[in-house]
Amino acid sequence: MIDDxxxxxxxxxxxxxxxxxxxxxxxxxxxxxxxPAMGGTRFYPYRSAQAALDDALRLSTAMAYKNALxxxxxxxxxxxxxxxxxxxxxxxVLRAYGRFxxxxxxxxxxxCDVGTFSPDMDVVARETPYVTGRxxxxxxxxxxxxxxxxxxxxxxxxxxQHRWGSPDLGGKRVGIAGAGKVGSRLTELLIExxxxxxxxxxxxxxxxxLVGRFPGVDVVAGTxxxxxxxxxxxxxxxxxxxxxxxxxxxxxxxxxxxxxxxQLAEAGIDREMAARGILYAPDYCVxxxxxxxxxxxxxxxxxxxxxARATGIFDTTxxxxxxxxxTGVTTAVAADQLAEERIAGVSRLLRLYxxx
Length: 356
What we know:
Elements: H1 2-6, E1 12-18, E2 23-31, E3 37-38, E4 41-44, H2 49-69, E5 75-82, H3 85-88, H4 91-103, E6 108-109, H5 118-124, H6 145-164, E7 173-177, H7 181-192, E8 196-200, H8 204-213, E9 218-219, H9 223-227, E10 233-236, H10 245-250, E11 255-256, H11 269-275, E12 279-280, H12 283-286, H13 289-296, H14 303-311, H15 313-327, H16 331-348
Parallel strand pairs: 3-5, 3-6, 4-5, 7-8, 7-10, 8-9, 10-11, 11-12
Antiparallel strand pairs: 1-2, 2-5
């Protein structure tokens, strides 16, 4: 476990344990070169502490690149709380977690993620001010999935522009894996754009709710069935690792663009996708609308201002895709290059004295 941390390039990793409340959590800060690390809190029943640590390391690294590419003055961090949120989430667990966040003295700003919601952040905020994604009633931005879905939609339009010469998604078949917060909102945007949507989710109640709102949505049993559909766009919007060599062998879509983090399950998948002519819109590029939303909260949240900035994901995605095409690298490498250039460029400014 220790070797995993020291070999990951992270600045700081905190293991949080409060026996009385039952809290077991990991807070991982990959980089604070651009500013305080920002990233959500995932509450998930990991099979082991090692699995939780691995996820925190991966997610916090992705957040550093996401925030950089989104033009935010924030580094990358992420927290994971080990446990089933339906069984183990409580006021005492969340407040104990808030005390650990506070102990980082502003180096990390937390927010919602899988298994946590804006009301949970209100509870965490009773112990620390270093919280975003709070409820509207408490001066926050509310549910960050709103602009996460909006950003994915903009990235999808940019990918369509690059591949087909037009951002219009009308008539295109989009397969969405995940009918949760982001997947359901993305479905709504795509239906409004006259796209055809096929969706899957193991949560039957989520599917039923979505089909109740949009009867024209097609439903398939699982992800294996979804990727076997003649899709134009495959949109992973659930957990990571959605694109593996096994799934790639069956995938018929021309574009992969979704809201899930860490979509590529194995090293080199981006090269195999490119070789097959599948255009990959890098996940941390297109799903940055949520972090844009919660970052705006620090200025006194204004939804229209945040949405305007998230709309810029169209241009950022297009820039990534065009850089990849012009230099012969994969789109994943192109996105990393742009993010790393910004992190390095701003970091060099530290040698300049700014004054009081």
